[in-house]
Amino acid sequence: MRILAKGNSKRSEELKQKLSLLDFEVNFIDENTTFILNDDNFDAIFDLNFDDNDQSSFLEFNNLRNTPVFVSAVKNNLAQMVFEKNADIQFPLFGINSIETFLNRNLLEVSMLNASHEKILIATLGKLNWEYKLVNDRVGMVTPRVVCMIINEACYTLQEGTATMSDIDISMKLGTNYPFGPFEWADKIGIKNVYEILENLYNDTKDERYKICPLLKTHYLLKQNFYN
């Protein structure tokens, strides 16, 4: 199986770890590299930072008809991105949760633009030996939506002086068995990613649960992690 992966260093490294036990031909390229492909080049393509980049387009995939393409679709959903780019999608297009810390997990979250391509999804991820969960094509998918909401609530708790960052992180890890506390996780995911996921969730749903805490917004504007 021949795979092309395009993304930043952190996401590419997570994908390398996820593919490490498989004997496939994998080509990694930088997130800023452009390319034009046809169905003879690769058996699967992963664009790990697609919804991060306002300049992203589907033009690179215009010659494809049968090759499955997996793009990051957390900050924006597939249907919205296709609409905004006025793209005529002829190939099997799937969204994945490739946000930092979420890609190299046992279960991959996947969304689908066209339900008729589900057999291709099953076949491709079967070859990769990946377990996956098919989720609705919505902003935030499932896990990022929940985790970012928890991070936001933790920011409100810290802002109100109810508890310290360390106390909140320890309490969440012990109480929920999460791998990280909310502030640790925010730093690993990236403050920018957390902020933009919440911002797009709020714009999409107008749900007050996703209204960004001023403390989180300050860290985003100053490009500051919670822990130095």
Q: Overview of this structure, please?
A:
- The protein is of the alpha/beta class and 228 residues long.
- It folds into two domains: 2-134, NAD(P)-binding Rossmann-like Domain (Rossmann fold), CATH 3.40.50.720; 143-222, N-(1-d-carboxylethyl)-l-norvaline Dehydrogenase, domain 2 (Orthogonal Bundle), CATH 1.10.1040.
- Helix content is 39%, strand content 15%.
- The protein is built from eight helices and seven strands; from the N terminus they run βαβββαββαβααααα.
- It has helices spanning 9-19, 78-84, 118-128, 143-159, 165-176, 182-189, 191-205, 214-222; strands spanning 2-7, 25-30, 44-47, 69-72, 93-96, 107-112, 131-134.
- Strands 2-1-3-4-5-6-7 form a seven-stranded mixed beta sheet, covered by helices on one side.
- α4 (143-159) packs across α6 and α6 (182-189) crosses α7 (191-205).
- The chain is globular and about 60 Å long.
- The termini are far apart.
- The model has no long low-confidence stretch (mean pLDDT 94).
Labels describing this entry:
228 residues; alpha/beta; Rossmann fold; N-(1-d-carboxylethyl)-l-norvaline Dehydrogenase, domain 2; 2 domains; 7-stranded mixed beta sheet; 8 helices; 7 strands; globular
